[in-house]
Amino acid sequence: MTTARPYVSSLRRMSLLDSLLTEANRSLQVLANVAHASRPNPADAAPRALTYSGTTKPDTTASNTSATSGMVNTPEAPPPAPALPAPVMASASAEPGPADVRHSRGLMRVNHVGEICAQALYRGQAVGTIDPRTRALFLKAAEEEVDHLVWLNQRLRELEGRTSLLNPLWYAGSFFLGWAASRAGESFNLGFMAETEKQVTAHLENHLRKLPASDVRSRRILEQMKIDEANHQKTAEHSGATELPLPVRAAMRAMSKVMTTTAYWI
Ligand SMILES: [Fe+2]
Ligand SMILES: [Fe+2]
After folding, report:
1. Which of 51, 52, 60, 243 is the most buried (most CB within 10 A)?
2. How far apart are CA 221 and CA 216, in angstroms?
3. From ligand 2's centre to the CA of 145, what distance in Å?
4. Does any domain span residue 56?
5. Ligand 2 mean position, distance from CA 237 (Å)
6. What CA–CA distance (Å, rounded) separates 131 from 139?
């Protein structure tokens, strides 16, 4: 009995250290934009022509490579049939002006920051929870948020834009917030996730209205994200989420407003 206590204490320290190293590694991957998506980018199904700073470029990639299958067509092979519905292809004839491209860059940077925050929140919530089932739920949601991060980063590159300079700050703040939410109990923790996703879905609807009509590729990404976020909300609600008190919901909205306003520019 006298030797068991130091052994258990040592195991706890190792477990904490392991957890800290895992989270440090994860945050570096996310902030360095080297994480990998588990699903194809929804924008791959849209024309590439409307992506650069006011200049329409031919979609050479789309005609030679299938982004979803990874297969490359030989010169002898017939060109693949267009996979898009007619209305989307028709919009490729529109030419975005410099103001449209600047606006798309700002909006997509805001969305990228939102995903940095979501990623950090869920990792923090997972670390702080004691229920293995809830932890698995947060980690799964975080994985899907990585897909969103990667897609948005790819889109920002196409638009010759950049991610927010304040991303390390957003990540650290959100991770701490997620951890704090987890300390308030399982139902609050899940409620925080449900409310986050509810607000994100409303935000995405707003951005879908604000996006320039010509930016079909960004639109495809936001539409898929909206579906995923609504599913995250439902999952949290079905897993025992409680509705958060009004002041907490209002504070979350206020913080989100600060983030979205800042990230559009910085
Ligand atoms: Fe997301
Ligand atoms: Fe989500």
Report:
1. 51
2. 9
3. 6
4. no
5. 13
6. 12
CATH (domain of 107): 1.20.1260.10
What pLDDT digit, counting tens, does each position of 187-208 carry?
999 999 999 999 999 999 999 9
Q: What is the dihedral of CA 159, 145, 163, 169, to 10 degrees?
A: 170
Query: Which pLDDT score is estimated for 78?
Result: 41
Q: What is the mean pLDDT of each run of 10 residues along the chain (266 residues)?
A: 60 69 79 83 75 44 35 37 37 66 92 93 90 90 90 92 90 92 92 94 94 91 95 93 91 88 86
In a domain, 262, yes or no: yes
pLDDT the model gives residue 82: 39
CA of 68 to the centre of ligand 2 (A): 22
> Given this model, what pLDDT does residue 63 score?
34
CA of 50 to the centre of ligand 2 (A): 27
What pLDDT score does 19 carry? Answer: 76
- Quick check: is 72 in a domain? no
Q: Report in angstroms the alpha-carbon separations of 44 from 84, 170, 226, 243.
A: 10, 28, 17, 37
* Per-residue confidence (pLDDT) for residue 107, from 0 to 100: 94
Q: How far is the CA of 103 from the centre of ligand 1 (A)?
A: 20
- Which residue range forms the structural domain that includes residue 198? 101-266
Ligand 1 centre distance from Cα of residue 47 (Å):
23
| Ion ligand 2: residues, Cβ under 5 Å | 229, 232
- Report the number of distinct structural domains present in the chain: 1
> Going by C-beta distance under 8 Å and a sequence separation of 6 or more, which residues neighbour residue 246?
none
124 membership: H or E segment, kind and range? helix 98-128
Burial bucket for residue 230 (CB in 10 Å: 0-12, 13-18, 19+): middle
